[in-house]
C-alpha cells in the first residue's frame, strides 16, 4: 500500500468515526428534545388546569364579595339579614315561575280550522296538535319571552305539552281549543319571530289553522300552580 492509499484510508476512517459520533450526538439531542417536549406538554397541561381552577375561584370569590357588599350596604340602610334573604327568596320564586307577573308582550290565539276537509283529505291535518302548541311556545322562548302561559297554565322547566286523544295535556291538565298562549317580553321581537316569513304562523295558516297574534302593552301571566317534585336531582355541595 503506497502513501497515497494510506492517507486516503486514514481519511476515510476519520470521516466514518466523525460521522458516527455526529449521529450519536444527534440521536442524544433528539431523545432529550423528545423527553423535554413530553415534559413541557405535561407541565403546560398542569398550568392550564391550575389557571382554570384559579379563574373559577376568582369568579366564586367575586360573587361572594358582591353578596357581602350587598349585605353590608343593605345592613347600613337598616335592612336586617332576614329581610335581605326574603328579597332573594322572592327573586328566586319570581325566576322559577312561582309568582304572578305582567308586562308587555303578545297573546296568541290558536283554533282548529273551520273549513271542512273533503273525503280525500286527512281531517287531522286541520286541527291543532300538541306539537303545534309546543312549536309556538319554543318560538316565543327563542325570541326572549320571560314568562309564558297556555290557557292560564304557567310554562316552567317541569311543564309538558303532550297529546291525549282529542285534547292536549299541559301541566297534566286537559285543554281543548281555542288555545291562548300569553307571553311577556319584547313585544316587537315576539311578534316578528311568530310572523316571520316561513315561520310558525304561516305554516299553521297553510293548513287552515286559525291563529291570531295580538301585541299588548299589558299581558298577565299567572304563577305555576302544579307540584314541583325532584326524584333524582340532588344539590352539589361546594367543593364536590
Automatic annotation (TrEMBL):
Residue runs in coiled coils: 47-74
Domain of life: Bacteria
Keyword flag Coiled coil: yes
Record keywords: Coiled coil
Signal peptide: none
Family stated for the protein in its record: Belongs to the UPF0749 family.
Family matches, as PANTHER family: UPF0749 PROTEIN RV1825, UPF0749 PROTEIN YLXX
Protein name: DUF881 domain-containing protein
